[in-house]
Structures are given as C-alpha cells and as structure tokens.
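User: Hey, my collaborator sent me this sequence without any context and asked if I could get a structure. I don't really work with proteins. Can you help?
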Amino acid sequence: MGVNIISNATIVQTNDNIFIGSDSATSAMLDGQLYRIDEKATKLYQINNMVLFCSGNLDYCYNLVEEFLKQEVKNANVIKNLLKASYDGEKIDILLCEFKEGKTFVYQISPYNNFEIVCFTDIPVGAVNVLTAGMKTLESHSLAYENLLKRMTISKLYKSVFGSISYEGIGGTLSVYRLDENKVSEYLTHEIEEKTDLKILTIEVISNQFKTQMIVGERIYGKVFIGVNLALEDEEGVLKFQGSKGEIFDRNGRLVMKLGLVHEEPDTFGLWSFNDVTRVKVDQLEGFLIDKATTDIVKRPDGWEKVLWADPKDGTIYAKGLVAQNIKIVNNIGDTILDAENSYFDIGDFDTIVMDNKLTSMEKMQIITELYKINSGYHRTLEQAEEYKRSQCDDVFDMEAQFFSKTPSTIDLYSTTPLTQAYFALIIFLSTLKLCHQTH
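Assistant: No problem. I've predicted the 3D structure and written it out in structure-token form, which is a compact way to encode the shape of the chain:
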C-alpha cells in the first residue's frame, strides 16, 4: 500500500487573466482500493508573482519547492534546472503560472517531456484556453468547457467541476488563485461537495508503515477556443465577457456598465455606464455624451435625452440645464469676458464688431451670441447683488419691546442702478442694428 496525493489542476487562461484551481485531498491505495485519508495537502503555492502546481512524489515535491524558494531568481528555467539536477526517477509534474510583459504565461515541465518547458501564451483577445493536469483531466476539461458555454461565472465553474470529479483522490478544500497585471490573489476558497459513499482510511493506521508519495495521472490536456463567455465574480458583482462584449453587474444582479462592443447595428465600441436616471457614454461614434431618462418617447424613442455632449466632428461641447459654480468665460487669448463670481462682464468687442456700421451675417450671429452671454451674466449679477445688498449688521433692534424684536435693514450698501442703466443703454443701442433676435 502507498499513501498518495492524487491531484487535479484546472486552468482558465485568457490574454490578461489566469485562474488555477486545485483541491487538498490525500488518499491511499490498499489491496487495489483507493481510500481517502485527509484533506490537508498543499498542491498550489503562491511564490511572488507566480503560482506553482506540483504533483508527484510528495517528499520529492516538497523538497523541490523548498529548494526553489531559496533561489534568488525564480522562474521556469530555474525550476527546470533544479528538477533535472535532482531527478532520480521520481514521479513529478510541474505547472507554473505568471503574468509578465503584458500577458499571461503557463509553463509545464515534466520528465516525460524530457524536462522541456512547454509554454502556453499569446492567447488571442476574446479567446479562452482551458488546461487541465493531473488526474481526471479529460472529465474536468469537458466540464469547464461546457460551463463556459453556459455563461457560468468562474467561481461557479470551479465549484461545479470539482464537485463533479471529486472522489477518494480529489476533494477537501478547493483553492483558486487569480493572476493578472495587478497581483496574484486567492480568488476562491470552497469546501467541495463530497460524495456520500467515500471510503475513508485514517492516517494513524498507516503513518508508521508506508512512504508518502504523490501520483501523476494523465498528461496535461488543453484546448484554446474562441468566442466563449468568461465571467469573473466576487461579492461586489460580476464582470462578464462574451468575445468583444463586456458587461458589469452589481451585487444585486443589475447591469450597470457595458464595455468593448457596447451596441450593434451599427457596431459601436466604447464604454457605457448607466442607472435609472443618467447614462454616460464614451464611444467612437458619439464621442462623449451624458443622457438623462425621459418619458417623452415620441421625441426620444430610446427613452434618453442629451444633456451634455461633445460634437464628435469638431469637439464643441453643448449642454442643457447646466448649473455651474465659479463660472468664467474668456476669449481665445485669455481675456476675461464674464466672471460671474466677481460680477464682471466686458462688452468691449462690440466697438470693433460694429465699427463700420455694416454687419455681416457672421457678425450678427456673433453679436447675438455675445448678447445672450451678457444677458445671462446681467441677471445672475443682479441676483447676487440683491442677496448681498443689505447687511444684517444694519438691522434695527427694538430693545424696549415686550419681546425682543428686530426690523430688517433698509440701508443699501451699494446700488445696482448704474449696472441696469448700462445694460439697457446697450440694449437700446443694439436695437438700432436691426438684429433678428433681441434679449430684454
């Protein structure tokens, strides 16, 4: 009889993400029958920015990993050289996953490949590479492939795969690691749903009689396929990809963002984020756009109305219903035309525009545009002036009244009359120019 750790590693690899999962079961063969011993084995090792899967003779695997950890440089070539230098016929199979140079890498090293490094990388955008190694590789690969086709999230995929292939040799705790450009993290820890008829053997019975070792099963099995959904899930929500289409759902399952191919007919690529009231769009057709929800489906059949947008042809920004603080308008050389906070506006350009008393259509449009700006600034200035024209310090207090009271001040700290006179003088002057629009 020999004590074994029979392993399965299932890997889902894209160009920018790797997920690798394995279990923790320990088992032993007795008279041709496999028995479960415990669920305490370590099969995945996080080492710096890499994750290592090691299957084979237990003592040899642990010694190899320990020696690898001592090395100043840690990569696939280093562990290959350590393996070749120490190998003496032991059963061993190595998988090493890492993210570098802007993409993912999965390396496989084993004696039956004469220790040559087999590298899986350069996964096409929109493609998924499913790899399985160890025991029950064909079953786990088929299940992972089918679950991706069913649009199953990564966490549910791994739970389903290991729950289905669990037996005396595979089970215990499922650990899944995720590697991307930012970090290596433990993505999922899950107690595998075990079969009810497991054959159990306690470690105490055999610990003093037999050498502990691991078993290598089928060789690594994998396939790259295109156009399959990939869903990444955590407690905050779900990120789902289907080819070039990306969708983000919140923790309540509501779709809140689209990215990549956000719309079809015509094909539109960009990013859309939305809730029940507003929608923000950044794409190659409309540029930058903010919409608000509307019930006027006659004018807006899609239920959205533009409120802020940049014309994709020339970049001009338009707005509706805009409220702004500290607003200031300057001309193309930086001179201030309107400063609402400091109650200032400049109408000096009109002298130049009407100097010859002959207005072109473009000059009329320029005057009308400037007039609307002045009108807006004038009314805003009056509103502010009215609010601060009188001071509470000048309120009249009646100290002899039965109940203490005060009367608001009637003293004006300043007068808006000169501003009003100047404004209406401007309007009277502009009325002589026979513009098509006037503002009062």
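In plain terms: The two ends are 101 Å apart (CA to CA). You can pass these tokens on to your collaborator as they are.
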